[in-house]
Amino acid sequence: MNGNLRIDLDRLMGRIFRLGEIGALPGGGVKRLALSDEDKIGRDLVTEWMRDLGLAVSVDRIGNVWGIRPGAEDLAPVMIGSHIDSVATGGLYDGVLGVLAGLEIIERLNDAGIHTRHPLAVGFFTNEEGARFPPDMMGSGVNQGALDLDEMLTAVGIDGKTVGVELERIGYAGDVPPGTLRPACFLEIHVEQGPVLEEEGIEIGAVTGVQGISWTEFTVSGVSNHAGTTPMRLRHDAGIVSARIAAEARAIADDLGPPQVATVGVIEFGPGLVNVVPESARLTVDLRNTDDAVLKAAEARLRTAAECFAAAEGCGLEVRKLARFAPVPFDPDTVDLIARTAEALGHSVRRMPSGAGHDAQMFAPNCPTAMVFVPSKDGLSHNVKEFTAPEDIRAGADVLLQLALSRAGVVDNAGETS
Ligand code: HGY
Ligand code: MN
Ligand code: MN
Question: Parallel, antiparallel, or unpaired: how do β-strands 225-226 and 276-277 relate?
């Protein structure tokens, strides 16, 4: 009976679109930066849905929220979670799918009167994106002991606000200490955010782990001067130094080849005027690789180059690490179960690493953890045009449903477990 259980796709899509109305951008997509007013409204909505489903809701000290459906036995919960904060040009599905598919599974089990041995938990984690307040995976990192609570509460955002003050402001500075939540296992469904599944015509990704992530901020200090009267030999141009650092980041990715990637997401000049030699520049570099040794070599090459460029131009250089996470493997048994479950449901599946960071990577060291990917149209994400076909969402959520039942154990009406 339970093997034939399927999610209610219309209900799930309805919640995805409803949440997508919060922080909706004029041309489509969403902007729900962590701890913003939009994030608060989204949190309030999802928390209301949790309560409507009868879940016991908890909020921890970094604002993570989870709801628990009791199990027949006093066991650690099987947890399904992700995030509902977005980047400034976010899509409807990044993170949201992982939370709302969890709520759909709860509602489906409620409808069917199915009870599980383990409690089931569904949660969303604070500031997974890290776009406003670096680092990313902040809430799940604190919750699972990878990041320090007090340090993260004092983290300053790109707008000068601090995490702790913003958490209080939106009413999500909870009282549950980090480490209270110790799930039996952690399962996350997420849009792939890349081109692989679509290019290969495959419906499900059984994610084997997350690649290493390195975020660095370079701040260059030079001397502002007149663009017309200052000979090139007398310049201390912070702008050209930052441009050379950016070019070097791309050269590193080109030289190393896949899977190395490099992104300069932010580059700002001061004063930023057409006829003034820049006195200051700030840029961020995001480097990633599945191999930590190669990633470290890439970081070292970039740092050395930045120091050379700054010295040659007679500029100062400050380097600040915004995020650094080593590659994380997921639980092989759970990855295998995802692949078997997908095949049993008649879906094509392939094993693959994740190019993006996810909350799951913070749980992986503490409990059996893995992820289910569904295809992203044109491989797009962190883009308002992010899209995943409803049928792909159905396939992924059905796999997640069976995965959760398998891990939580089903108690039939006679009290027998299966
Ligand atoms: O940056 C990432 O990989 C994630 O979207 N936070
Ligand atoms: Mn995400
Ligand atoms: Mn994202």
Answer: antiparallel
